[in-house]
Every structure is written in C-alpha cells, then in structure tokens.
Design a protein that fits this description.
Layout lengths: L1 H4 L2 H7 L4 H7 L6 H14 L5 H10 L6 H10 L38 E10 L4 E9 L5 E7 L4 H14 L5 E4 L3 H4 L1 H8 L4 E4 L9 H13 L9 H18 L11 H16 L1
Parallel strand pairs: 1-4, 4-5
Antiparallel strand pairs: 1-2, 2-3
Helix pairs in contact: 4-5, 5-6
C-alpha cells in the first residue's frame, strides 16, 4: 500500500487527491457506485436541483436515500446547482395607462385560480430575439397560459391570457408588473370582461412579482440555457414541450411537498371532494 511507504498527506498531495476522499474510500457502502450513477443521471436531467431536490427525485424513483448522504456525495463529485444569472429587463413602465395597486402582497393563497401571475422574458435565437409571455397559478405553480412571439407588445401577453382563459376558469386576481404589455387597455379590458381584479407590483420592486420571476428563471435555466433552437418554430415547439409536459408533469417543487404541479393540484382536488362528502 502507498500509505505504508509515504505519509497520507504527502501521497494525497502528489496524487492531487483530497485526504477526505482517501479516508472515505474505505468506508463506502457497497451500493455507493450505483448511487453516484443515479445522482449523475438526476443532476444531468435537472441541472438546477440542489441536494434536497435530487434526494426527493431519487426517492420518487424508489431509490430511498438520506439527503445528507446525497449532499456528501454531490460535494465529492463536485456537482452543484447551476449558478443563477441576472435577468435582462423587458419591462417598460413609462406609459400613461392606469396603474393598479398590489392586492397580493399580504394575501394568503389557499386555492387554485385565486391568483394568477404573469411575466415576460426574451430569448436569443441565432438570428433574432423572440419573447415569451407566461401565466402561472400561484397555488398550484401550474402554468395556465403562454405565448412565444416576435414582438414585445401587448399582443404577446394578450395571446397568452386568451389561451389561459380558454382552458381554465378566470382567476380572482391577475398580478403582474406595471409594464405596458399588462397596463394596455386591451389587456386590462380582457381581464375586466371576466370580472378579474387587477393587481400590479410597484415600479422597481421586482420581488413583488416573485412567483412569476422564479418561473421565468426556471424556464431560462432548465430549458432555454440548455437548448440550441434552430429557429422560431423550433423554439416554440421545444419551449411548449417544457411548459406543458416537463414543468407541469415531471418537475418537482419543494414548495409543493416535492410533487409536480399536476400531482399537487390533483391531490388538492381529491381532498376537497372528500371533505365535501
């Protein structure tokens, strides 16, 4: 053994190997290699997952393991959640349309369709910029509507809204920033026509639309940043698949008890049905 001839510290320095790895090696469990492989698979599919969500995903796959063990292995394997980047702003709040107060800041959200939140982001293709508008139900974290367009105007957000209202009951409150796309008369009138209360974050207070900001960040980190779209139509198809399939039916949320939005909503509705009987 190398350790019999040289001090462990010297051997590790020569081999560029942390001493912690040397001491740990002899204590590895028999299934450690398989667990490492399983962690790699989850981390590759979900690059922004930290050790807690990696653990939850493994448990969903009937690979029951303690989160501390996963955390230790991820550190040894140098697997870390992807660093979050700053957002390029697409909000133009310099307009003469009416402003609306923030109705959700201290609101307790306890049911689907109580509050929808909306936001817009840009996506850089090979030869052009395109823009994505999304609408999310806060309680279930489920996407309600989205649209990818080439123009950053109210038709982008209005198309997403119309798609949402065609598939789901109108929310009690619609919350957004004060950007012109949401303050434009056509947009606010579409909400008022179905008796939706309009709520807006204060200018410069992005945290007041935090749920939508986090959704946009997830889309960027887990779909856009990992894809190379051929053109607008390819981006439309792939982003649609992510929102309608992956995000809704496969991606787990710590805030939902590590369920997907679809699972959480189905569970909630079953509980309501049992309670009413």
């Amino acid at each position: 053994m190398l350790a019999h001839e040289y001090p462990i510290a010297v051997a590790c320095e020569v081999l560029d190997c942390p001493r912690s790895s040397y001491y740990h090696q002899g204590n590895e469990r028999p299934d450690e290699a398989q667990l490492r492989a399983d962690i790699k698979v989850v981390a590759a599919e979900w690059p922004t997952y930290g050790y807690r969500r990696v653990t939850a995903q493994l448990n969903r796959q009937h690979r029951h393991v303690n989160h501390k063990r996963v955390q230790r292995l991820m550190r040894l394997m140098d697997i870390q959640a992807k660093v979050k980047r700053k957002k390029r702003h697409t909000t133009d709040s310099e307009h003469d349309f009416p402003r609306y107060p923030n109705l959700v800041q201290d609101l307790v959200i306890v049911r689907p369709e109580q509050v929808w939140v909306s936001d817009v982001t840009y996506i850089h293709l090979r030869t052009e910029f395109v823009y994505l508008a999304v609408i999310m139900d806060v309680f279930t974290r489920g996407t309600r509507g989205w649209h990818l367009g080439r123009n950053l105007d109210h038709t982008l957000t209005l198309t997403a809204l119309r798609r949402a209202l065609a598939q789901y009951p109108a929310p009690e409150i619609h919350h957004s920033d004060q950007g012109v796309q949401y303050a434009a008369t056509a947009y606010t009138q579409a909400l008022q026509d179905v008796n939706v209360q309009i709520s807006m974050a204060e200018v410069g207070e992005a945290w007041q639309n935090g749920y939508a900001e986090r959704l946009i960040r997830t889309i960027k980190e887990e779909e856009v940043d990992l894809s190379e779209y051929l053109d607008y139509h390819d981006a439309y198809r792939q982003i649609g698949r992510f929102l309608d399939d992956v995000y809704t039916h496969k991606r787990i949320h710590s805030s939902l008890g590590y369920l997907t939005p679809a699972e959480f909503e189905e569970q909630w509705r079953k509980e309501q049905e049992l309670a009413s009987n």
